Amino acid sequence: MATDVKSHPLVVSVSPHVRDEESIAKIMWTVNFALLPAFIMSVYYFGPRAVYVTGLCILTAVLSEHLFQKGLNRKITSTDGSAFLTGLLLGMNLPPSVPFYIPIVGSLVAVVITKMLFGGLGYNIFNPALVGRAFLLISWPKLMTIWSTPTAQFLAMDAKTTATPLGILKEEGAVKLMEVFGDKMSLYSHLLLGNRAGSIGETSAIALLIGAAILIYKKYITWHIPFSFLGTVAVAAWIFGGKGGLFTGDPVIHLLSGGLMLGAFFMATDYVTCPTIKKGQIIFGIGCGAITMLIRLKGGFPEGVMFAILLMNCFAPLIDRGVAPKMFGAVKKKEEKK
Amino acid sequence: MSKVATFERGIHPKYNKELSSGKSITPAKLPQRVVIPLSQHIGAPAKCEVKIGDEVKKGQVIGSPAGFVSSPVHSSISGKVIAIADFPTAVGRLVPSVVIESDGKDEAVSFKENPNYMNLSADEIKAAIKDAGIVGMGGAAFPTNVKLSPPKEKPIDTVILNGAECEPYLTADHRLMVERPKDVVEGLKIIMRSLGVNKGYIGIEENKPDAIAAIKSAASGESSIEVHTLEIKYPQGAEKMLIKAIKNREVPSKGLPMDVGVVVQNIGTAIAIYEAVRFGKPLIERVVTVTGRGIKEPRNMMVRVGTLLSDVIDQCGGLVEGAVKVISGGPMMGFAQWTLDVPVTKGTSGILVLSEEEYVSSEEYFACIRCGRCVDVCPMGLNPSMLSILIEKGHYEEAKDYNLYDCFECGSCAYVCPAKRPMVQFMRLAKSQVKP
Ligand code: SF4
Ligand code: SF4
Q1: Full DSSP string of A308-322
Q2: How many C-beta atoms surround the C-beta of residue A6 within 10 A?
Q3: How far apart (Å, rounded) are the C-alpha atoms in residues A151 and B435?
Q4: What are the backbone angles phi and psi of residue A329, rounded to the nearest 5°?
């Protein structure tokens, strides 16, 4: 009989019985994909070196997660794209000239210490790639701040190093920066296209924005964090960024330089380490922007995006507790109590 | 264009209504045997009024209400009582039930007609509704006469008929609105009269233009009835969301619709009320949508209460090869079945059979990645992510501080969760551990 259940066991589970098609793996691989345009630009500017450094990061990240989970007999999730993403992001945050052990150590710190020892994806407090990078910056400050000019170079990196636009801005001011690049427009276009010294992935603002547009279109990220982050940076740069007093700064230089685009769209938005509630995300974004500018303008480093996000990561759970979503029927209940 | 009303948040699942929305309601075959549970409603089970061996007629009382919140139960066929015992029901409980073997004659007791039903008093209407054993037919199955008797301190000024039918796949209410719009409107008028209310609404989701047109024309002469088009969004048909959409009133946390002066009734219930008050007909049959890609011929059928799911499924051509899951109700809030030998009851709105292609396994789930999707969709404005994390750790009391008991288990959060977390299961677990 068609309805003979004995020969055909039915599945029983709790509702709902339909789910939408999103999965962690789908989201993670899409984010990886969204970084592709920027990565292609990096390869264009830095040559095989970009592939080499980033590849080492990814390989170490995925392998270490796999071995860790295997060793501890945990569920293997190394193919869900999240370790890959950590490796990719770390790679894009490194100078192209670093020796081979830098990507390896960085990835190990990112995946094993920051993610796996905290319990794996979902339990980590800090963005793994950023912790990896922070560790490297503190341990090998020299190697991590050698920036090479973007001319296709091969595996052996020559020492044709230079300062990043933010470095010049910090040490010598905006006027000098214009001189280096010719004029204002050519400076902007260099920044937009990525033809400047910097980390592997923080070069081309346009390529990063294309990736960001993909994520926003797919609803994987929303405007809340990146826009409040960038907005705060722009306003702070305009007010405090100029050498000629208040309201003389150039927000565009600050927006397009350094790791801001990469950080605002791809790292501050990391689900696990940012607030879950939209209102909280705006606070988070503003905090990131404010700390970034504080470091850029007053701190010891030319760039502050990394520390800004890491610092705000600490506050994410706290922010979430502070801004509970508006509950249905809550207002009237309070009135009734009076 | 009329304005499209809705509530905040919610989800847009694939509706899959096209499988059955064009199929007219057809009567199911007279069952050879029915298993009629004495408890098909919220409240005290009915008291059994028959013995094994008794001959019963269609419409005869076989269980009488045992208390204020209770409801009588009637035989849905004529025949002989062959067993009285505990049987499984579609919600997974064992319930004392009366098994009746049909004599094939389908003889009915005589029903008390009321041609002048609009002249009946409120109490007479409620008595007729109670005697007919009418309960909410949208699934909750709360005795209707109780819902129509709010305490004095809760004045009611509005009745809303829920024609949203926001559960994917289901089309029972849709077909009733298309095929019997006059009866729906009459039912609403009777409900309004029983409550002394002169404002009635029928809310229908935008995806049922034929139902909207039919109901609008049926209600065209009624100045006290408004038809509202609702946005296509789940759970638009949840009482609180419906009231928000149509009246912009927010039922307070832990409150009931009557706290904001509203009574909500389901479309099927309205027709049952009309039939009970006008013709004296008890609730012994209902429209069931039999659907899903796991069923050979999806249909909307008028099914006698007590008919086994297996019987109904057979009449729809049976299961297809590789049917995986059978659900009583809709895919968002319905109950998965382990056996098909459970009866259709007053609250069974659909029988959904999922095929392999429609089925999503929920066996494996992951840690919450705090993506916030659940927070963005929870119609109650809760933080399901936080709730699930707390419950997973066993912090049930703390879950209560996050308004656990405002969750009505709509499943929206679980639907969108990329970590495939069993959110509804978590919520039920916690509710079983801490009192409201
Ligand atoms: S099941 Fe509960 S927590 Fe989840 S969306 Fe529905 S009401 Fe909110
Ligand atoms: S949707 Fe799932 S993974 Fe995302 S925050 Fe909610 S529970 Fe966590």
Answers
A1: HHHHHHHHHHHHHHH
A2: 6
A3: 68
A4: 80, 5
What CA–CA distance (Å, rounded) separates B225 from B274? Answer: 16
Our CA angle for B204, B206, B211, nearest 5°, is: 55
Rounded to whole angstroms, the Cα distance separating B263 from B430 reads 29
Alpha carbon distance B93, B79 (integer Å): 26
Nearest partner of A90 among A44, A136, A41, judged by Cα: A136
φ, ψ (nearest 5 deg) of residue A273: -110, 10
Averaged pLDDT in 10-residue chunks for chain B of 436 residues: 78 93 93 94 90 94 90 95 93 90 92 90 94 89 91 94 95 96 96 94 95 95 93 94 94 92 96 96 96 94 95 93 91 93 94 90 88 95 95 94 94 95 95 89
CA distance A30 to B342: 45
The structure tokens 């499924």 sit at B313
**Chain A contact set for B359 (CB, 8 A):** 11
Q: What is the per-residue DSSP string for B258-321?
A: GGGTEEEEEHHHHHHHHHHHHH---S-EEEEEEESTTBSS-EEEEEETT-BHHHHHHHTT-BPT
Minimum CA distance residue for ligand 1 atom 7: B407
Contacts with A120 from chain B: Cβ below 8 Å: 367
Give the three-class secondary structure for B72.
Answer: coil
Measured in Å, residue B388 CA sits from the centre of ligand 2 at 9
Average pLDDT, integer, range A244-268: 90
The DSSP string of A88-148 is: HHHHHTS-TT--THHHHHHHHIIIIIIIGGGTSTTT-SS-HHHHHHHHHHHH-TTGGG-EE
- Residue-level pLDDT at A13: 86
| Joined tokens for residue A305 | 């995006």
Structure pTM? 0.91
For residue range A229-246, list pLDDT tens digits in order.
999 999 999 999 887 788
| Cα-based angle A59, A60, A62 (whole degrees, multiple of 5) | 65
ipTM: 0.89
Name the residue of B375, B417, B425, B426 to mutate for ligand 2: max ligand atoms within 8 A of Cβ.
B417
**Paired sense of beta strands B158-163 and B200-205, if any:** parallel
Helix axis angle for B122-131 and B267-279, nearest 10°, is: 100
Tell me how close the Cα of A172 comes to any Cα of chain B, in angstroms.
42
Å between B251 CA and nearest CA of chain A: 5
Nearest Cα neighbor of A267 from A114, A118, A46 is A114
Give whole-number Cα distances, A130 to A58, A91, B152, B194, in Å: 14, 11, 63, 66
Q: Around Cβ B235, how many Cβ atoms within 10 Å?
A: 24
Residues B380, A328: C-beta atoms closer than 8 Å:
yes
> For residues B167 and A174, what is the distance between their CA atoms, to the nearest angstrom?
60
DSSP, res B420 = -
CB A227 within 8 A of CB A269: no
Contact B333, B411 (CB under 8 A): yes
Burial class (CB in 10 A: 0-12, 13-18, 19+), A243: exposed
Contact of B273 with B129, CB cutoff 8 Å: yes
- Other beta carbons within 10 angstroms of residue A338's beta carbon come to 4
DSSP letters, B147-184, are HT---TTS---EEEEEE---STT--HHHHHHHH-HHHH
CA distance A282 to A110: 26
Q: Is the pLDDT of residue A332 over 80?
A: no
Q: CA-to-CA distance for A258 and A264, rounded, in angstroms?
A: 11
Q: Give the integer Cα–Cα distance in Å for B370 and B376.
A: 12
Report the C-alpha gap between B76 and B431 in whole angstroms: 36
